[in-house]
Amino acid sequence: MLKKLYGILGANGWEETENTVEVRSPFDNRLISRVCLASEEDISRAIGKAALAFESTKKFSSRARRDNCLGVARGIRDRFDELVEVLSLEAGKPLKTSRMEVERAVSTFEIASGEAQRLGGEVIPVDITPMAEPYKAITRRFPIGPASFISPYNWPLNLVAHKVAPALAVGSTFILKPATSTPLTSLLLAEVILENCRLPQGSIHVLPCGREEAGLFATDPRLKIISFTGSPEVGWKLKERAGKKKVVLELGGNAAAVVHHDADLKEAVARCVAGSFSYAGQVCISVQRILLHEKIYEEFKEKFINETEKLRVGDPMDEATDVGPMIDLANVERLAEWISEAEKRGARGLTGNRHSGTLFWPTVLENVPSDCRINCQEAFGPVAVLIRYSSFREAVDIVNDSEYGLQAGIFTRDAHNIFYAFENLEVGGVIAGDVPTTRVDNMPYGGVKNSGFGREGVKYAIEDMTEWRVLVMKNMGERVE
What we know:
This protein has 15 helices and 25 strands. By secondary structure, the chain is an alpha/beta fold.
């Protein structure tokens, strides 16, 4: 059962502060709980404790780091139903989507437990010249220091896990700023970590706060890396302020799926419906643009509309619901404005385009001018734009005509087309045979252009949270007594 008030996890453990924020259901606006907000002073003290604790955690054995990750995975599993409920309450996710997120979080920590045992190095054959012959060298990765994490509202458990799990795997301490609209899941995860990990006091901090106070997450020199997931506007500004620390940015997207004339249409339709409207499109790799070869355009359109109209929109706590609410009314109004703008310029609505409160029915558009915001910006809502093309090369060019480049999906049986897409699409990931809304938690994940900087995925996040150190030894050959 949720408490009426949650404190921050600060320098002195769980603390209550003067300023609080209400956490309300995006579906019916009911009050779920209240959460304390951290001040700049709270954040600064927490950073100091994290820096102090790092002197201990950086010495953890691989076994200790592995066991901590496995402990969190077990702890999440033990509180599975509770986390599902909280996700659906505060984020408005349908229960089936929340269950998938909790399962993925378990998997992410399990993956991290394996990577914790592979944090090694290599032997370098430096004896490549006569002068270097007396030398031997080995390398090893070491954690770089306390980490700074800022997470978004849309995946408040698994996107946090993708920052926290690699940190535990390398022996790093951290401070975390969850989204103020969905902070409860992060606070519950902190409880799980404290209950299931052997960590010195001050190793982890969860600090909900305002944007102004969050500046320290980027600027404080005691923090050695910042990993941010959110809007490009905020992300690039944080990078400018980050100084010498490492920066990882997972930003917006304008994802496209290309359906060629040789594709399995039944499969492509089903996957595009799921990819476009899961979690009301509030996913950075949601299928926003669907490019259809002219030979199959009309057939796909008819089937896609039919399947879209079968989706049930409503209460996320109802097991039958497929599409829940958007996060708030401001985003509903923004999306409606973007659609209206496109329709005034000749776009045609095929289904949906109605809303009630924060519910927005899945909407399909065609004939959208390419420079309309609903086509060229990140919609972050349940909207799919259908686009006709005549050749695969043209489709790739259309996908690339975007300031974003996170992931793209292609449906084709032609291996030549698959490799052409892989070599020419300006994205961080190409998904062949499925939608761009496909992410497996051990794969590299990140974008190019305005979609980000660096990569997530446990192994790849570990690379950013560690640095190479080389040991060069002279005259350390065999000694015979």
